[in-house]
Amino acid sequence: MLRTTDPDFDVRFRRIVDDRRESDTDVASDVSAIIARVKARGDEALAEYTQRFDDHQLTDDADWRISPEDCRAAFDGLDTALRDALSLAADRIRAFHLKQRPADSDEIDDAGVRLGARWRAVDAAGLYVPGGRAAYPSSLLMNAIPARVAGVERLVVVTPTPKGKVNPLVLAAAHLAGVDEIWRIGGAQAIAALAHGTGRIRKVDVITGPGNAWVAEAKRQLFGVVGIDMVAGPSEILVIADGMNDPDWIAADLLSQAEHDPDAQAILITDSEAFADQVEDRVDVQCAMLSTGKVARRSWDDHGVMIVVEKLEEAIGLANALAAEHVELAVDDPEPFLDGIRHAGSVFAGRLAPEAVGDYVAGPNHVLPTGRRARFASGLSVLDFMKRTSFIALDDASFARIGPAAAALAHAEGLPAHAHSIEVRLK
Amino acid sequence: MLRTTDPDFDVRFRRIVDDRRESDTDVASDVSAIIARVKARGDEALAEYTQRFDDHQLTDDADWRISPEDCRAAFDGLDTALRDALSLAADRIRAFHLKQRPADSDEIDDAGVRLGARWRAVDAAGLYVPGGRAAYPSSLLMNAIPARVAGVERLVVVTPTPKGKVNPLVLAAAHLAGVDEIWRIGGAQAIAALAHGTGRIRKVDVITGPGNAWVAEAKRQLFGVVGIDMVAGPSEILVIADGMNDPDWIAADLLSQAEHDPDAQAILITDSEAFADQVEDRVDVQCAMLSTGKVARRSWDDHGVMIVVEKLEEAIGLANALAAEHVELAVDDPEPFLDGIRHAGSVFAGRLAPEAVGDYVAGPNHVLPTGRRARFASGLSVLDFMKRTSFIALDDASFARIGPAAAALAHAEGLPAHAHSIEVRLK
To answer: By C-alpha distance, which of A107, A117, A115, A112 is closest to A399?
Structure first.
């Protein structure tokens, strides 16, 4: 627990801001070897790696791919409540992202120059879906639906199926989102296959989705060959709460982040030290009851922070320094905080907006910048699957008006062919 | 010269598409050593590297920084025509980018959930400006103005000044764009200083701007610590021209790209082989006259391509495969081409839109995706200096309506603390 009145507060707070909680596993050379091998030997390399890492043999088509029929069957096989919940989530995510579609522009300005820009979807997108513990159907929806809304024609999922085991919830989500292909491969080899293409798998233009250190490193190395989303680190939440909250609610919110990962971080800022103590007590009680209590406990013990401020408005400056992935505003009037917080992935305003609502069904994307990256990065959106082409057109009058300035600048920069391409038209 | 009717056209065209023209200089380990040293030893390391690489000694403040007064003096010292040309460029770039500023959203949907997103500028941006031959004032404007329009409060330029020499045109552009700080450092060490900060130089949130292989690799390695723009390769132009053009004009356009760099690429697609021959002749004539003719000649000989199609509409599909940085449409009616070309950095429509107009004064950004990256990337824009924070707020009714679905999904994903944070509020 830190108090802003502590003499060493600045130093300790700075240490929290600077702590990235990211293990620098050096997998770069392993990953570049895997990429080179997949590029050179294609499907053969994929089969070898999948045998070795996932204990799954890729021989027949059914070993390689999960069919749309299997996805539909998985969806139909869900119990009704879960199927409805997944459908509600998909509908709301779609509705929110539909409003993100950017407008084209096309205007003629005062000089008579026609200027504009057109947004178009990428042709094909690849989504990585982790296997095992972190195989979340909600992540599949959050990655696939923005791509579909953008107008991506070909939507490809890669996911490892260790010992051949598939996750029915993930398949159900793939059905809902309308994924076109699902390949049973994972790791850096799957990213390499999506980026470079193989005999079976055609290459894509953009790759998104979470993964382990190998997957993240492969995306980083292939950035430029394909587009990628932001490399993500451990998750984090900042809860700004006055003393009028039920400590049980706030403890639950902190733990909902902590249960993800021992490296996750939950931070509480409050103006009541008594309230902070109550929250701490409730964290202990809840941890003992949770099936994920061990992970949550470690995250809270290693990375949990409580900061007591004199006035809750001080939290705004601290929140901007922390640039957290998730920020909850558990106060009656969240508006001044919402206005003041410039750096955050997503804000959950008011006492009835626990982060978990946003993780699943609210509509905004849950793929958000971590590790203070909200200073410069945004959550995943339709724009990650689109790109903009600008255009200009001139007539005689407008060309005569702005052409000479361009020629003058070209000469000044020592680029005579640039100048000539204008001057030859001015004659 | 390729003809779509050639039997081996597909193979040869595919080879052109796949040729990235990018030298894989392996500077990764040099660069990571430089970054580590700057991170550890700050200004001292910067001074050592600057002495070694730029033959410039960093001792007094005046060695480290170029003052705003020097920039103003450089601007005032330009001849009138050049000053006016630079001002026209700045005004038009500003006007175009002002229209890119994204709108915030804030709505209450059918379920009673308040949903929205707010765009905010990053706090500080760093712009790399190369020294020597490629020190282009137009590039400074194209990077700095979008940052300023975005609302970035602190705009920092780093630029090497070999043997202490500065480029007055670059200083004049910095004055026009309103740059806050200019540091006389370059290379990977300058990128490291911007990303991590040193005693003298406070760190920034986003770094953009062109540079050599060391600069590009440093940006790549520091991607995630800061935001970066797309790593750029050699420039390229695709000119789609019917046989009715003046071959002199089209030759000039091709050479305006070729003169940049021996690795630059100029491609002509036309439906008239006779016209292609005439263009080839004019390329020879113009090359002989240009002060940059040697570079342009090498680029044209090594990478220049002419493709003859039967019908000019075939150029649309080829253009989408090439996904070129610049596409010129030298035809009477460019509209069908503009509609059909999905993948291009920027399109120059009609016979009076040579690329050079767009490079300097038209208004759209000239920092564009190269090496087929227009498949997934856009030109530099105001959005590169902003980020979006989404937010939600719920009342009792809307929480009761969508909360249970979130809890059901949380349970299904094995995240009980997520579920509890909702259930505890539903009681």
So the answer is: A112
A357/B422 Cβ within 8 A: yes
Going edge to edge, which strands form the sheet with A326-330? A2-3, A305-308, A265-270, A236-241, A326-330, A346-349, B386-393, B114-121, B105-108
Provide, as residue numbers in chain A, all residues whose Cβ is less than 8 Å from the Cβ of B399: 352, 357
SS3 assignment for B256-301: HHHCCCCCCEEEEEECCHHHHHHHHHHHHHHHHHCCCHHHHHHHHH
Q: Identify the pLDDT of residue A215.
A: 93
CA distance A411 to A406: 9
- CA torsion sign for B332, B334, B336, B341 is positive
Give residue for tokens 């600045």: A10
A143 is in an annotated binding site: no
Q: How far is CA B339 from CA A384, B316, B320, B349, in A?
A: 22, 9, 12, 11
Closest residue in B to A252 (Cα–Cα): B421
Per-residue model confidence as pLDDT tens digits over A82-105: 999 999 999 999 999 999 999 999
Facing residue for B138 by CB, picked from A95, A404, A413 = A413
pLDDT of residue B18: 86
Q: Tokens standing for A287?
A: 């941890």
CA distance B295 to B24: 21
Q: Is the pLDDT of residue A133 over 80?
A: no
Q: Is A52 helix (H, G, I), strand (E, B) or coil?
A: helix
Q: Tell me how far apart the alpha carbons of residues B128 and A116 are, in angstroms, rounded to a whole number.
A: 27
Q: In this complex, do B408 and A359 lie within 8 Å of one another by their Cβ atoms?
A: no
- Is-contact B417 A286, C-beta < 8 A? yes
Q: What mean pLDDT is predicted for residues A17-46?
A: 88
Q: Do A389 and B105 touch (CB under 8 A)?
A: no
pLDDT at B133: 59
Band (pLDDT 50/70/90 cuts) for residue A210 is confident
Tokens of B310: 């039967």
Name the residue among B361, B40, B314, B108 with its Cα closest to residue A363: B108
CA distance A400 to B425: 68
Q: Which residue has the tokens 């021959």?
A: B277
**Mean predicted confidence (pLDDT) in B111-127:** 98
Q: Is A411 a catalytic residue?
A: no
Query: For residue range A231-267, what is the model confidence (pLDDT) as tens digits?
Result: 778 889 999 999 999 999 999 999 999 999 999 999 9
Residues of A in contact with B371 (CB under 8 A): 224
Q: Which amino acid is at B325?
A: E
Mean pLDDT value across chain A:
95
Domains located in chain B, CATH noted: 2-22+233-362 (3.40.50.1980), 28-104+121-228 (3.40.50.1980), 394-426 (no CATH)
Does the pLDDT of residue A178 top 80, yes or no? yes
Q: Sign (positive/negative) of CA torsion B417, A335, A303, B220?
A: positive
Angle between helices B137-150 and A396-412 (to 10 degrees): 110
| Closest listed residue to residue A152, CA positions, set B338, B390, B342 | B342
Q: What is the CA radius of gyration of chain A?
A: 25
Task: Reply yes or no on whether A325 is catalytic.
Answer: yes
Q: Where are the beta strands (DSSP E) in A89-153?
A: 105-108, 114-121, 124-128
Cα distance between residue B19 and residue B322, in whole Å:
10
Does residue A224 contact residue A104 with C-beta atoms inside 8 Å?
Answer: no
A399: which chain B residues are within 8 Å (Cβ-Cβ)?
352, 357
Alpha helices in B327-373 (DSSP H): 335-340, 355-360
A110 is in an annotated binding site: no
Helix axes B168-177 and B80-98, enclosed angle (nearest 10): 40
**Of the partner residues A409, A419, A422, the one whose CB lies closest to the CB of residue B89:** A409
**CA dist list (Å): A402 to A116, B146, B344:** 17, 21, 24
